[in-house]
Amino acid sequence: MEVSAVCLSATTSASASVSPFLSFFGARKIRERGRTLTSLSVAVQETQAPTTDSAATTSSTSNSRGSLSVRTRFNSPVRRSSIDEVKACSDPVSALSRVEGVLQVQDFNIILRHFGESRRWSEISQLLSGCIKAKHGYSKATQLVKELQNKGLSMDSVTYGTLLAICASNNLCNEAEMYFTQMKNEGHSPNVFHYSSLLNAYSGEGKYLKAEKLVNEMKASGLAPNKVTLTTLLKVYARGHLFEKSQELLSELETLGYAADEMPYCIIMDHLAKAGHLLEAKKIFAQMKEKDVKSDGYSYSIMISALCRDGSLNEAKELAKDFEKKFDKYDLVIVNNLLRAYCNAGDLESVMHMLKKMDGLSINPDWNTFHILIKYFCREKLYHLAFKTIEDMNGKGHQLNEELCSSVILQLGQSGFPSEAFSIYNMLRYSKRTLCKSLHQRMFSILVRAGLLKDAYVVMKDNSQSLSAKSLEKFAMSFMKSGNINLINDVLKALHRSGFQIGSDVFSTTVSRYIATPAKKDLLLHLLKWMSVLGYCVDSSSRNLLLKNAHLFGNKQIIAEILSKQHGMSRKNKTNKT
């Protein structure tokens, strides 16, 4: 059975967003019934697959409580209605977008089986074409194709076209060449889409010689390059820094009427600017505006970004203002470039205006948005806003940059916000990464200096090997003087385990504090016994203070015996050392 009926839409959806099928299955591994992504296609082909009702019923050998639970879930009216809606819809992708939050893994399996039984191959093809922009899309696509082949489906030109597009999207030039050659060897004639996809794969590395050879081969086969082919070739030249050839090809595109929109100009401008030829990029931009080329604002976005990189901050800001006057269409890329321009120019009013606009248009910030804002707030010494932005970034699941966060932690600590600094430290700590040793030292010093000794103890307990002896000594004295008295013994034990040699001045301060708080006499008694076991000994002043206040312990003999034992252990240790 050929897959040509399956994948017709694949050739027209190379740049489509990820299919709801794939976004669902790519987001989590399917463990129910031992299924994986590759086994989905098998489920699609099962002509004897169970119906929705039978799938909802567990086997008679199952645990009765489990069976009841499964039946209850499958009999949910909302889920049943959602499944029926997708099955009946002529555009199941849009239906899935509406209801995918309701559906469970087994529901997707049911829908896929229904498509297979109904021979609705075009819907199944979207699972393959959806791999184009999915994470690890190439490996997922090849696994799916392998399963299709195992079920007797042979590769055809449309399947190869989709694989070529996936290779191009993932910058897999060699793999694209392999599929292109394999397709021709199997007797399939390449069409314009196949040539354009392979050209796109070449553009990733600027392989212009191979690209020119491919275009000549295409012409020799009787196929005329279209707008997509020539624009892709332009991208190959631009990425290969062949700007003279790029200009010549742009002129050809203009002559053919293929440069009515801004895309060809954007390609050249972007690569000129990134190669350090900002003046030439400006000329292309001016040329585009002079010819009144249709624009959605992306050319402005490219130039704003280029001006920011060049340090032409006021010019970038003015161009951003010009964009806002002319366009009311925004996306995340454009918003980030406008924000960067306003932030670099120090225009807080415009920054806040842009953030409000993002909220109004429901544009969600990405990793770049947060970093632009955090750096700006730090530069303007708006540290509390920087903290709130990091907090929001972490809450939305974005990976925090340790170097940037470390800088913010230092600035917050120096500006009198130690608690906020510690919050950022904990965000990094709980992100399950190995932090730089200097960050533990930095955080520890900030906390000790601010008197947040309980938090400092948390840092010390887990990272003592990353802390200097001097900072540990300062912490020990500070904690004995004003730390939580109920934690004093725990802190001393943690310091001892870390290898830190506790000095007599630390013990002297501890004894004085305990004596001043008679209610904690049991803690003092416990500490003195612990010291005796490990060979620590109080100094003479502490010894006299303890004997003077021995009545606090009810039996003076107890203190005398402990002190005698300490003295004996101390002498023994000194003898052993000599």
Descriptive notes:
This protein is an all-alpha fold and 578 residues long. Among the domains are: 1-154, no CATH class; 503-578, no CATH class. Helix content is 69%, strand content 0%. It has 33 helices and no strands. The protein has helices at 20-27, 40-45, 52-55, 64-74, 77-88, 92-99, 105-117, 121-129, 137-150, 157-169, 173-185, 192-203, 208-220, 227-239, 243-256, 263-274, 278-290, 298-310, 313-326, 332-344, 348-360, 367-379, 383-395, 402-414, 418-429, 437-450, 453-463, 469-482, 488-497, 504-515, 521-534, 540-548, 556-577. Helix 11 runs antiparallel to helix 12, helix 16 packs antiparallel against helix 17 (278-290) and helix 27 runs antiparallel to helix 28 (469-482). The model is unreliable at 1-74 (pLDDT under 50).
List the helices and strands and how they pair.
Layout: H1 20-27, H2 40-45, H3 52-55, H4 64-74, H5 77-88, H6 92-99, H7 105-117, H8 121-129, H9 137-150, H10 157-169, H11 173-185, H12 192-203, H13 208-220, H14 227-239, H15 243-256, H16 263-274, H17 278-290, H18 298-310, H19 313-326, H20 332-344, H21 348-360, H22 367-379, H23 383-395, H24 402-414, H25 418-429, H26 437-450, H27 453-463, H28 469-482, H29 488-497, H30 504-515, H31 521-534, H32 540-548, H33 556-577
Helix pairs in contact: 5-6, 5-7, 9-10, 10-11, 10-12, 11-12, 12-13, 12-14, 13-14, 14-15, 14-16, 15-16, 16-17, 16-18, 17-18, 18-19, 18-20, 19-20, 20-21, 20-22, 22-23, 23-24, 23-25, 24-25, 24-26, 25-26, 26-27, 26-28, 27-28, 28-29, 28-30, 30-32, 31-33
